[in-house]
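re: ur question from yesterday

yeah so i grabbed the chain u mentioned. its 440 aa long if i counted rite. heres the sequnce exactly as i have it in my notes:
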Amino acid sequence: MESLDALVSLAKRRGFIYQGSEIYGGLAGTWDYGPLGVALKKNIENLWWKRFVSDREDMYGMDAAILMHPKVWESSGHVSGFSDPLVECEKCKRRFRADHIEDTEKCPECGGRLGEARQFNMMFKTSVGAMEDSASTVYLRPETAGGMFVNFKNVIDSFHPKLPFGLAQIGKAFRNEITPRDFIFRVRELEQMEIEYFVRPESWKEHFDFFLKEQHDFLADVGLSKEKLHIVDVPEADRAHYSKHSVDTEFDFPFGQKELLGLAYRTDFDLKSHSEGSGTELSYFDEETKERFVPHVIEPTFGLGRLMLAVLSDAYCEDELGGEKRVYLAFKPAVAPVKVAVFPLLKNKPELVAKAREVYGALKKEFGAVVFDDNGNIGKRYRRQDEIGTPWCVTIDFDTLGEGGDAVLNTVTVRDRDTGEQKRVAINELAAMFKVALSA
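ran it thru and got these structure tokens back, copy pasting raw so excuse formatting
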């Protein structure tokens, strides 16, 4: 698609994503997910969890607290190093990230002079307890990884896993971005899907390459176009302080080629840092070789909001169907918020509505993400379902009841979203047909 504005408009109009606190003028960098946005997000999460956790024997799920002891972030290096270069306009007082503007001397808004760049720590501070002093200061976590590292020993003691093994988590992270922008791409409240995979030091490259392939297989699971993906080796100067080797997967968003996924080789930095900071030994004892050592870590990172934006922008299509311009979202069926819509041809015919309700109930029980729609004429219903990306519409008409001229009793019209083609299908064959299509 060419315009991000068109996608933002559709997302609001159809209940995918709303501006946070909109009735109060909005709060920059925050977005609320409506009913269809929640469904799309959950579908992506579920596909991720299935591939990386439930289908594997070596992965353990986590859900760590957002608030953690402040020394966690001191040990990890975030208190001293989690910062971006900030510049401020001396005239209009607007602030910008220095690495996001072309001219670091001239304000891109008013043309005024920009001051010297200074480092701005992006972690949100808050206080715990009744007193607000330095002893009560805690941070909203800037990443989910910390909660997994500090629970490394707990998982070892509870489950005695053999190397290699991983911890996986889906959760909120918070970053006080200087200039949030590009819809849900750069925000202050985000969701991450992260893995910390613990390996023997000598085998890190093997596992790194494996997870790079797994990341791209997952992007195929959610339907992203391969030609819009780019693998980029991150130079040392741009890598996070904990990373010895990083590869980003970038995507062609409407506003340019930007980072979608990250993959980092974190060595033993985190376990050693937390071991020193806490005074707790965070090592691994191999029962077979009788060795004790600190494992190294491979970290595949997925930003859920960026994945949603990529899926939405890649699925956005405009064409002409039946002589009329239409907009539709060509979601892969597995991620579509609604899988099937069921219509009675006419809503003022009780016999059609009753049969449509019967078909709807059966499909709803089987697939869950099924809607009933009798609002407006059939053409408007098709367009509405196209715009939210529903792969199939099922219409109950008079032929279904055996009342048409060429009637085939208990058959319905199934319409394909992408092509607009329609075919007659027996009601008792619908579930099996959709199951096959959803697994493709």
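noticed a couple things. Residues 338-439 form a domain with the Rossmann fold fold (CATH 3.40.50.800). also The first strand starts at residue 17 and ends at 19.
anyway ttyl
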